[in-house]
UniProtKB/TrEMBL annotation:
The chain crosses the membrane at residues 7-31, 37-56, 68-84, 90-110. It comes from Nocardioides potassii. This is DUF2568 domain-containing protein. Keywords: Membrane, Transmembrane, Transmembrane helix. The keyword Transmembrane helix applies. Pfam families: DUF2568. It comes from the Bacteria. InterPro entries: DUF2568.
Length: 119
């Protein structure tokens, strides 16, 4: 695959971050619909904790297996909860966006950008 220009790569990484925020919001909305405001806040905090622990680039327990498995489980849970709470269109759009943008984030010239800045 050809290298992605850095400006495009950083845009993709910004959209990956936006996706993470949207997943937290989706979990919040879904849990709020089922269990009220407290459940919504709790679900959002659980997603943030899971992501920070297993899925983020600096996750203490992230790895070749834990990181992608956590990402898939969080995306499926957030989108499934959103669909179950009556937001089927938003769930489908978020699922499609999550799959596409995270696949683009795996392109080698995109995924190595943060490491190049750290040097």
């Amino acid at each position: 695959m050809p290298d992605v220009p850095p400006a495009v790569g950083w845009t993709i990484l910004a959209l990956v971050f936006l996706d993470e925020i949207l997943l937290v919001v989706a979990a919040w909305v879904a849990a709020d619909a089922w269990g009220g405001p407290f459940a919504g806040v709790a679900a959002a905090l659980v997603v943030v904790a899971l992501w920070a622990t297993f899925a983020s680039p600096r996750a203490p327990y992230g790895g070749r297996v834990a990181r992608p498995v956590t990402k898939v489980l969080v995306v499926l849970a957030a989108c499934g909860g959103l669909a179950a709470s009556g937001h089927e269109g938003a769930a489908a759009a978020l699922l499609a966006f999550s799959v596409v943008i995270n696949a683009l984030g795996l392109v080698p010239s995109v995924s190595r950008l943060p490491g190049e800045v750290a040097r």
